[in-house]
Write a structure and sequence with these properties.
Helix content: over 70%
Number of strands: 0
Strand content: under 5%
Number of helices: 12
Distance between the termini: 47 Å
Structural class: mainly alpha
Order of helices and strands: HHHHHHHHHHHH
Shape: globular
Radius of gyration: 17 Å
Length: 256
């Protein structure tokens, strides 16, 4: 019972922080779920909880959603998530998670490198770029349960404002996670325990997303972008820490 209470409170706090950072703090759920429910069903539990959380954000930010971008993401999101969920139990994803962790941490250069808010970006994201990007991110999400804020760098590169980023990202996340839920259920990864823990996360997130929305109104676009990048770095560090033993073994065997 105590673990369920910790899960509820923790999921609520993460939901608030996630709203302030562009919906990118989902990876913070991984250690929380592993502690309270065990590591075996982290991916499907995260998927169910995030689907409910994202649905509430779609409601809160409905008028800010970029529906043109959503339509470009639609087919690749479904295809990638189904393929990733299909391979969920068949592939070892440890090295993949380490690579994603390194990629997330590297976004620290974005935080410290952009001294001027109006500095012209080195590469401009076009709307059609989201087709391959969406497929890759959805595939990775289906494979390991979630890639957190990895997609946010593309949204920022596309020039989205904070409300539009959260609304559009949440709409796509609902599509992504519903596809994953159906896939996990089809392949036998959804059971009563997954539903219990997923619903606890979802309910806590729905209640706290409203708080996050009100706090979001009080921060500037510049502060929001820093929140987004900071969350990417923290998520990457957590991924690397999770696999610290594997990294140490690699260093000992190949770099010494």
């Amino acid at each position: 019972m105590i673990k369920l209470f910790i899960l509820f409170i923790g999921a609520g706090l993460i939901a608030i922080f996630s709203t302030l950072s562009g919906g990118g703090a989902s990876l913070l759920l991984m250690p929380l779920i592993a502690y309270t429910a065990g590591v075996r069903y982290v991916a499907p539990i995260m998927t169910l909880g995030i689907a409910m959380s994202s649905s509430s954000r779609v409601f809160y930010f409905w008028k800010d959603i970029d529906w043109q971008l959503f339509r470009w993401l639609f087919p690749s999101t479904i295809a990638g998530s189904i393929l990733g969920a299909r391979l969920f139990a068949e592939l070892s994803t440890d090295m993949l998670q380490i690579l994603i962790g390194l990629l997330l941490v590297s976004t620290g250069f974005q935080l410290f490198g952009k001294k001027k808010e109006n500095k012209k970006p080195r590469f401009t994201i076009k709307v059609w770029h989201f087709v391959p990007i969406g497929f890759i991110i959805s595939f990775l999400s289906g494979l390991i349960g979630g890639v957190g804020p990895l997609m946010n760098s593309a949204y920022l590169g596309y020039g989205m404002k904070k409300e539009s980023l959260i609304g559009t990202r949440s709409a796509n996340a609902v599509l992504l996670h519903i596809s994953k839920i159906c896939s996990y259920a089809w392949f036998g990864f959804i059971n009563s325990e997954v539903l219990k823990y997923g619903l606890i996360i979802g309910v806590a997130s729905i209640l706290c997303n409203y708080i996050g929305k009100n706090l979001l109104n009080k921060i500037t676009e510049h502060s929001f972008r820093k929140f987004v990048v900071f969350t990417m770095i923290i998520s990457g560090v957590l991924m690397l820490f999770k696999h610290s033993d594997l990294i140490n073994d690699f260093i000992k065997n190949y770099l010494q």
